[in-house]
Specification:
The complex is a heterodimer of chains A (116) and B (115).
Chain A (H helix, E strand, L loop, with lengths): L3 E4 L2 E4 L5 E7 L5 E8 L3 E10 L2 E4 L7 E2 L9 E3 L8 E8 L11 E2 L3 E5 L1
Chain B lengths: L2 E3 L4 E5 L4 E3 L2 E3 L5 E8 L6 E7 L7 E2 L2 E6 L4 E6 L8 E9 L6 E3 L3 E6 L1
Parallel strand pairs in B: 2-12
Antiparallel strand pairs in B: 1-4, 3-9, 5-6, 5-10, 7-8, 8-9, 10-11, 10-12
Classes of the chains: A mainly beta (116), B mainly beta (115).
């Protein structure tokens, strides 16, 4: 079954304690992306990657790190989490398509992070 | 920079009726993609419909259709014969067709379906 898997689904932690949210896809997609969703703000892109070892900042990259060492994995790292990073996080992936053949994103089920 | 605006935080529709959700966007680009995503209470993100800017014909998917007005930078979603399962948060999104693969999402419209 084609899917994007995020772990954990829920996490409550404390300020300053490093954490990693994993994201894995089994569709051989080149493109992967992280978003955060906050009430009244919709989804905002944090980072995205168009292939292995290629990452770019989205609109809200501050306080986050990512890496793309393998095509299937795109972990989101919070080196020193703060309460303003409490949010619902989504990972997504898609193939890049060719020319105007745009491919839609497949989303994971989300990770609810609470930073106390 | 591109922006996406959804001016209706919440909408209601009677079951079996038709409802239209509004979305406007701002861009200086001529080639791009537009999307509508649905997020039910399960919080999954589900693609409802997409539109390529170079296509003049409005996209349709069963009961869902869009009214794409490129000059006005408007991309509304029409849901016909509304069903209880349509109740969800709906997000409009934009992505450039060239260069950056950044996605820009609107703030969402919560749709309630009344029995």
């Amino acid at each position: 079954e084609a899917q994007v898997t995020q772990n954990p689904r829920y996490l409550i932690t404390v300020t300053g304690k490093k954490l990693t949210v994993t994201c894995s896809q089994n569709m051989n997609h080149e493109y992967m992306s992280w978003y955060r969703q906050d009430p009244g703000l919709g989804l905002r892109q944090i980072y995205y990657s168009m292939n292995v070892e290629v990452t770019d900042k989205g609109d809200v990259p501050e306080g986050y790190k990512v890496s793309r060492k393998e095509k299937r994995n795109f972990p989101l790292i919070l080196e020193s989490p703060s309460p303003n990073q409490t949010s619902l996080y989504f990972c997504a992936s898609s193939s890049l398509g060719r020319g105007r053949n745009n491919q839609p994103q497949h989303f994971g089920d989300g990770t609810r992070l609470s930073i106390l | 920079a591109q922006t996406v605006t959804q001016s209706q935080p919440e909408m209601s529709v009677q079951e079996a009726e038709t409802v239209t959700l509004s979305c406007t966007y701002d861009t200086s680009e001529s080639d791009y993609y537009l999307f509508w995503y649905k997020q039910p209470p399960s919080r999954q993100m589900i693609l409802v419909i997409r539109q390529e800017a170079y296509k003049q014909q409005n996209a349709t998917e069963n009961r869902f259709s869009v009214n794409f007005q490129k000059a006005a930078k408007s991309f509304s979603l029409k849901i016909s014969d509304s069903q209880l399962g349509d109740a969800a948060m709906y997000f409009c999104a934009y992505r450039s067709a060239v260069g950056t693969y950044k996605y820009i999402f609107g703030t969402g419209t919560r749709l309630k379906v009344l029995a």
